Amino acid sequence: MDNVSSEKTSFFRDPDKLALFYQFVVMVGVGLLAFYLVSNTLANLERQSIATGLGFIDKEASFEIGESLIPYSAADSYGKALLVGVLNTLIVSFIGIVLTVILGTILGVARLSSNWLVSRLSAVYIEVFQDIPVLLQLFFWYAFFYEMLPSPRQALNPFTGLFLCNRGMIFGVPKWHSAHGYMIVAFLVACVIVFFLKRWAKKRQEATGNIFPVFRVALLLFLGLPLAAWLLGGAPTEMNAPRLSGFNFKGGVSVSPEFAALLLGLVLYTAAFVAEVVRAGIQAVSKGQTEAALSIGLKPGQVLNLVILPQSLRVIIPPLTSQMLNLTKNSSLAVAIGYPDFVSVAGTTINQTGQAIEGVAMIMIVYLFFSLSTSAFMNWYNKKIKLVER
Amino acid sequence: MKLFKICLTLILTFIFISSATVMAGTLDDVKAKGYIQAGVNGDLFGFGKPDEKGEWKGLDVDTARAVAAAVFGDASKVKFTPLTAKTRFTALQSGEIDVLTRNCTQTLSRDTALGLDFCQVNYYDGQGFLIHKKLGVKSAKELDGASVCVLPGTTTEQNVADFFRANGMKMNPVVIENTAELAKAFFAGRCDCLTSDASQLAGTRAVAPNPGDYIILPEVISKEPLAPAVRHGDNQWKDIVNYSVLAMINAEELGITSKNVDEKLKSTDPKVKRFLGVSPGNGKALGLDEKFAYNIVKQLGNYGEVFERNVGTDTPLMIERGLNALWTNGGLLYSAPFK
């Protein structure tokens, strides 16, 4: 056999070289196809005299947007209109993800509850909300809001400062006062103190075995410091209360029925999936772990926090990430119920400028960016919580 | 920038691959396949919508049929593709349809940037406001702060924003893509008013739970010349669509209807003889049968007949002729001479 390996192998018999050769062929093929598609499209656009390029970004948008986190008017550019859309998508996705994780966790734990009623109710919820298409749920909640709630002139007013009508939920907010600035500073200070407190408490526990009640102290700091700042700042209570004027309410902060319906629909739908993910994660940790932890004298809360959760999180995080991405992507259904998300604004832009290729490409890039950022963050978190073997 | 553009196009190219094959003369294509593929609304009563028997009805539908009558001598040789406001231009650009008769407003930017040409206007429309009587609003100038229901993907969003800005008023748009969903939200009171082209408002009011509760405000805030469109650069096909629409208008000017067109063949009026192809020339110039105008009028009627049948005062839409009357009656319809 020795003499065989020393002989010069033919090119077509050497698997390494052949593999390289095939890869090269495929790459050239893909490259040629891409070149053909791009040049063909550009030529067609040219011949049909369809304008291309991103020149429209600076032009005046001249359409209004229903709700915006930043000041926007029809006199602003398409670029700014698109930014408003991006922010609207971000806010609904972010709040949606936070609420979904909370609700999903509660449902997932409830599903495993030893209480028959609680676990059955949770199971029914999961089955119902998982199995109805999310678009239908959105239509349902939107119709629910505008059909059930009265017009602004007959708005429900359950308590002072809060109005409910088919224009949305309008509530008073404190009028800006310098004391509010102090409260924000106080909150940040509390964050820093808690961070160092946690490190100190951990060190002390490792050295002496004594446990410091970090959670209670942190809660006290988070609530207490801003409260103290508010009192020191003169305890301002003046409210920016909404009042009826013309067709709608002026003043206060309003949450539109479109936003509420989209958020509610997405959260209730996705939470059903998250609940199943959480249940799977908890069931993946064998019962022996719980028994072992109890037998060495840990309290039930500690068993959950120190033994069960760290292990189940490893199972939960990857599918949970995928659910977060689903929620973000599903938020593009907003256009069906009138919430001005990015897809809706981009759609209007495409129609007014006629530049569909650029517009759709922008939509794809923005969603890709959202999804990749979410994935990157969750992957980092996943790495952080993986089992550290000592 | 160039690289970016290439990346952008790469992503979406597959949509356009099909467009590579359709640029030859549309008339030849259409004759070869034996029918015309027309893009229509599909959901707009009076303009383009199938009736309960599944038969397409409407002013735009009849305009497409007129082109079929001109090309094939048979108004039924046309197939319809329902399109949304967003997809309509892409469908025309990509060659999926041969002519777009879908209540499209002719504008300069559409005419120049979208690779299409608009033909003779077949309906002069204008944007207005529909509002519930109980709000007591008498003029659109009283709408400061109102929530306005509006369909996306049209010039409507821009017009209404322009109108509110010009009058120093604030508005709160609610933009819903589906016509039916938008109307439901409006009837339930989510918005104070609904804005759209006046013809569409009439259609929406016709399906309201209580049509009598709603009024259309007097202000018309925009000019909306609705015109058929064809692909840019195919002049012969554009001429054919143009003169198909003009034939209906010219017939009304000459007093020719679907009922008396056969008698008019015996007319001694040279204008009528030229129009109906008794004295030849017009058909050959367009590359059509000499009887093309006769076929249109015989099978569909003149503009007045088409209007009254689809949107006129005897239909649920109850639209007056207004701007769409002949110029001799104070309207804007004025046909080029057929000679």
TrEMBL record, chain A:
Residues of the ABC transmembrane type-1 domain: 86-378
Sorted alphabetically, the Gene Ontology cellular component annotations on this record are:
ATP-binding cassette (ABC) transporter complex
| Ranges in a coiled coil | none
Which UniProt keywords are given for this protein, alphabetically ordered?
Amino-acid transport, Cell membrane, Membrane, Transmembrane, Transmembrane helix, Transport
Q: Which InterPro entries match?
A: AA_ABC_transptr_permease_3TM (IPR010065), ArtM/GltK/GlnP/TcyL/YhdX-like (IPR043429), MetI-like (IPR000515), MetI-like_sf (IPR035906)
Q: Extract the GO molecular function terms from the UniProt entry.
A: transmembrane transporter activity
Identify the domain of life: Bacteria
What is the predominant subcellular site recorded for this chain? membrane
Describe its membrane topology.
Multi-pass membrane protein
PROSITE patterns listed in its UniProt record: ABC_TM1
Q: Give yes or no: UniProt keyword Disulfide bond.
A: no
Task: Spell out where the chain crosses the membrane.
Answer: 20-38, 81-110, 122-143, 179-197, 209-232, 259-282, 360-381
Biological process according to GO: amino acid transport
Protein's cellular compartments:
Cell inner membrane; Cell membrane
Give the similarity note: Belongs to the binding-protein-dependent transport system permease family. HisMQ subfamily.
Under what name is this protein listed? Amino acid ABC transporter membrane protein 1, PAAT family
Native source species: Desulfocicer vacuolatum DSM 3385
From TrEMBL, chain B:
Protein known as = General L-amino acid transport system substrate-binding protein
Annotated keywords: Signal, Transport
Q: Name the family.
A: Belongs to the bacterial solute-binding protein 3 family.
Q: Domain Solute-binding protein family 3/N-terminal: where?
A: 35-264
The alphabetized list of GO BP terms reads: amino acid transport
Task: Enumerate the InterPro entries for this protein.
Answer: Bact_solute-bind_prot3, Solute-binding_3/MltF_N
Residues spanning the signal sequence: 1-24
User: Gene3D superfamilies annotated for this entry?
Assistant: Periplasmic binding protein-like II
Going by the entry's taxonomy, the superkingdom of the source organism is recorded as Bacteria
Extract the Pfam families matched here.
SBP_bac_3 (PF00497)
